[in-house]
Amino acid sequence: MLILTRKPGESIRIGEQIKVKVVAVDGDQVKLGIEAPREVDINRSEVYEAIQKLNSQAAVNRPSEDILDALKKIRKK
């Protein structure tokens, strides 16, 4: 894992097409701005993991109500 230190207004580049900028730091929260092509999926980890679980269950045709409820809650945030 690469660990970098950035201040508000500073950014990092991932390849040629992705830019991640520190927009603000407020207490223990960091707000990031991400510039990337539309075809690049960008999700919070918990949303990505819920999607992966749903896809796995859909492959065996057994969606879990718990996972569907969790995904609905995550999307409301």
What's the structural blueprint in terms of helices and strands?
Blueprint: E1 11-14, E2 18-26, E3 29-35, H1 45-59, H2 65-76
Antiparallel strand pairs: 1-2, 2-3
Helix pairs in contact: 1-2
Describe the overall structure.
It is a single chain. The protein has 77 residues and is α+β, with helices and mostly antiparallel strands. The chain is 35% helix and 26% strand. The protein contains two helices and three strands; from the N terminus they run βββαα. The protein has a three-stranded antiparallel beta sheet, with no helix packed on it. Helix 1 (45-59) runs antiparallel to helix 2. The longest helix has 15 residues, at 45-59. 1% of the residues are buried. Its main location: cytoplasm. Belongs to the CsrA/RsmA family. InterPro entries: CsrA, CsrA_sf.
Number of strands: 3
Rg, alpha carbons? 16 Å
* Assembly of the depicted chains: single chain
Distance between the amino and carboxyl termini: 28 Å
Q: What is the percentage of strand-forming residues?
A: 25-35%
Uncertain regions spanning at least 5 consecutive residues: none
Q: Biggest sheet: strands side by side, in what order?
A: 1-2-3
User: Sheet with the most strands?
Assistant: 3 strands, antiparallel
Task: Briefly say what this structure is.
The chain has two helices and three strands; from the N terminus they run E-E-E-H-H. InterPro entries: CsrA, CsrA_sf.
Spell out the key features of this protein:
3 strands; 35% helix; 77 residues; three-stranded antiparallel β-sheet
